[in-house]
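== Sequence, structure tokens ==
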Amino acid sequence: MKKLIFGLFAIALLFTSCQNDSNDFVNEEDLSVNKQKSEKQCFSMDVLEKNLQQDPSLASKMASIEAQTKEFIAKGDFKRLVNGAIEIPVIFHVIYRTSSENLSLPVLEGQIDALNEDFNLQNPGRNTIPSEFAAVEANVEISFVIVDVIRVHNSKKRRWQPNDSMKFSSSGGSDVVNPEEFLNIWIVNYMPYHGGQILGYAQFPGGSLSTDGVVLAANFVGDTDRTATHEVGHYLNLRHIWGDGGCGASDFVADTPDSDAPSRGCPVYPTVNCGTNDMTMNFMDYSNDDCMNMFTVGQKARMDAIFTAGAFRASMAD
């Protein structure tokens, strides 16, 4: 089982994932990329590493959040200090070059439907979860609702780098809207990477409010896509299921088995790494969309902590 590890030293270890610079971004512009391509690429940890390098104060802010999270989990009741389920209002920023990239309201509503399924124990693939993991499956009790869609036509931008430029109107994007109350989700046409493309990335709690939210590539938005679920998990302070390291690396959750790497495709149960069966169906792994089906009790507790009094996203639970 992964151990709960907190403090600046643990955070420094966690965030030392592979660093990528602008040379990693290639000129491919094939928007018909297979949605289940093997490199299924979340860029959240890479963005976090760069943010830590650019802002020396960020590590201490995140350490404080971890300490608060540890204290909440140590209480053991895992009960959110708010009444009932949380409803998070969502603002979509659709930044498009062509009409096909200007995603329609029904597509965006389909994405919200998928989020509501996944965070409320209604995922259609739940019946495939093995019994050993079904025992720790959790209803996160968070729902999402669209409050606005901001559309920006940028006729010149053919590709975006994951450097938050889409979050500013001054660079052809769209400025964040009241991030303490709203989940801002930016949708861009294309983020190329190593011959494929980045599906999305999120900002962890503790970062600048001017860039707070989630970024998704347009090809990976809709009612059958789980990229948003994965990235919103990061936004709510979840780590990758394998801890972004080898055996012994931590995702700060006690009921997710240890593993040494992300899953690919749709693994057959049981898949064994680090002496335990991998929870390949967890939303915070890299399995195919239709093979990711659950959050755990420990992950729910970690998300609950971020909404409690004085926590980074407490205003969303008021």
Notes: The beta strands are 41-42, 86-96, 142-153, 183-188, 192-193, 196-202, 214-217, 272-273, 276-277. Confidence is low (pLDDT under 50) at residues 1-38. Helices lie at 8-14, 44-54, 58-74, 105-118, 131-134, 227-235, 297-305.
